[in-house]
Amino acid sequence: MSKSIYSVLVIFRGRQNDYRLFWNEGRNVNGEGVELKSDELSFPVTVEARNEAEAIRMVQKMHPDDIVSREGTERIGKA
Q1: The pTM is what?
Q2: Disulfide-capable partner of 19 in 33, 41, 62, 65 (CB 3.0 to 4.6 Å)?
Q3: Cα angle 10-13-19, degrees, rounded to a multiple of 5
C-alpha cells in the first residue's frame, strides 16, 4: 500500500478554548484580555502515512502532551 503525505494540526494543551475563539469566532483577544496569535495556539505537522488514522496516531506519539485535531488533518499529496 502506498503512503500519502498528511498535514496534521496540533493544538497546544490548555489552549483549546483560545483556539476556538481565534479560528471559529474570529476573535483576536480572549476573555482575559490576552492577545491571540495563531502560532501560539497550534501548529501543523507533516507526516507520511498509509491513511489518516495512522497519520493521527503518529503525531499523537510525537506530541503526547498536546491535542491532535482530527478536523485539522488533511491529505496533501502522495509520498
Answers
A1: 0.87
A2: 41
A3: 65
